[in-house]
Specification:
It is built from eight helices and nine strands. The chain has a domain at 69-221: Vaccinia Virus protein VP39 (Rossmann fold), CATH 3.40.50.150. α3 (19-31) packs antiparallel against α4. The chain has a seven-stranded mixed beta sheet with strand order 5-4-3-6-7-8-9. Strands 1-2 form a two-stranded antiparallel ribbon. The longest helix is centred in the N-terminal third of the chain and has 13 residues, at 19-31. The radius of gyration is 17 Å and the shape is globular. It has 232 residues and is of the alpha/beta class. The structure holds S-adenosyl-L-homocysteine (SAH). S-adenosyl-L-homocysteine binds at residues 77-80, 105-106, 108-109, 111-112, 126-129, 132, 153-155, 170-171, 224, 226-227.
């Protein structure tokens, strides 16, 4: 991945996407800010430093790619705010054994999946909008990322490939989706925004050896809704 990134001087050399601008985002995440607690996991910070977020948005928005904001990616969807991506990712590594196999619901731009892959996880991701998934797959190919993806309604998860050590849901639902909780391995962690369209709570679930579920509220967040069905 690094070698390929060096082959793109037109993108890397440009002021607004330069390594200096990208490092500034890392410092911001590391320090935290009111409402956004500091990201402490160095591997996660490194993944954010390495994955070129400007390649996951339209060229016209590339100059804003290293601000800590969500950005539109078309079809009324957004690439999540870097802090949210970092926090969700960090939350997967907080307890006990590091996950290996992860399922993401809501591929969108592909950025969150790329961050997980950069951390060495075996990534499965599901997206309901075919057009977004096609674009994300091109990015994975360009960056040499080996990510399994499927065009489907992610509310059914990916039962054939489960159970998963970690599940990240990147679209909001009023309640947790049972099919996904069922596909979580023992000792696994599920992160999902739960709540209505006005705003949600980022929830972390842990499944213990007896199948008991422990629930923690991580932060208030705002995600686009988890919708049913598929579109091209
Ligand atoms: N993780 C993405 C964030 C994308 S926004 C990123 O890093 O860019 C949320 C995404 O979830 C959108 O692309 C939306 O189409 C998708 N989505 C919403 N409901 C879904 C469902 N039921 N199954 C799969 N994807 C869904």
């Amino acid at each position: 991945m690094t070698a390929r990134m060096r082959l793109q001087p037109e993108a890397i050399g440009m002021g607004m996407t330069s390594q200096r601008v990208r490092d500034r985002l890392i410092e911001r995440l590391r320090e935290g800010s009111p409402g956004s607690r500091a990201i402490q996991n160095e591997n996660v910070l490194n993944a954010v430093r390495t994955v070129p977020r400007h390649l996951f948005v339209d060229e016209a928005l590339a100059a804003r790619a290293y601000e800590d904001n969500a950005l539109p990616i078309g079809h009324g969807q957004t690439i999540s705010q870097p802090w949210v991506v970092a926090r969700m990712t960090e939350a997967l590594f907080e307890d006990g054994v590091a996950p290996k196999k992860v399922l993401e619901i809501g591929t969108g731009s592909g950025y969150q999946a790329a961050i997980l892959a950069a951390l060495g996880l075996e990534v499965h991701t599901v997206e309901r909008i075919g057009d977004l998934l096609r674009t994300a797959r091109k990015r994975f190919r360009t960056l040499g990322l080996n990510i399994r993806s499927k065009h489907d309604d992610g509310r059914i998860g990916w039962p054939e490939n489960g159970p998963f050590d970690a599940i990240i849901v990147t679209a909001a639902a009023p309640a947790l989706v049972d099919a996904l909780t069922e596909q979580l391995a023992v000792g696994g962690t599920l992160i999902a925004p739960v709540g209505g369209s006005g705003g949600q709570s980022l929830i972390k679930l842990r499944k213990d050896a007896d199948g008991n579920i422990e629930r923690t509220d991580l932060a208030p967040v705002v995600f686009v809704p988890l919708l049913s069905g598929m579109v091209d």
